[in-house]
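Long-time lurker. I teach an intro course on protein structure, and each term I like to show students one example going from raw sequence to a predicted 3D structure in token notation. This year I'd like something fresh instead of my usual example. Would anyone be willing to generate the tokens for the chain below so I can use it in lecture? Attribution to the forum is fine with me.
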Amino acid sequence: MSSLKDILPELPCDDTAAPVFRAPWEAQAFAMAVSLHQKGLFTWTEWAAALTAEIRAAQAAGDPDTGATYYHHWLRALERLAVEKGAATSAALQDKAAAWDRAARATPHGQPITLP
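-- Reply from a regular --
Happy to contribute to a lecture. Here you go:
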């Protein structure tokens, strides 16, 4: 069986080949992808194709491909697959993103963000 690193060679790793994350949300996006795959929402082949498509689209739009935006592509691929597979709607995802944005702006620095 292939490892995630075999399927996603772009995955940022440290010197021990363990995935690294620049921010907690990146680790959460990673965990969501693993969880949704385990629940059968998509195969790793479908995931790799969706992520590749997002990265290529970003590069075509001028993304400098420095690695700093990698998990932004990861999240867009997750959202796209969730909509394509019927697990969410675009409107619901946009509503949730807007709610998180409002909650983050209303939360004092250093405090946990909570949705109403």
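Some talking points for your students: The radius of gyration is 15 Å. The mean pLDDT is 88.
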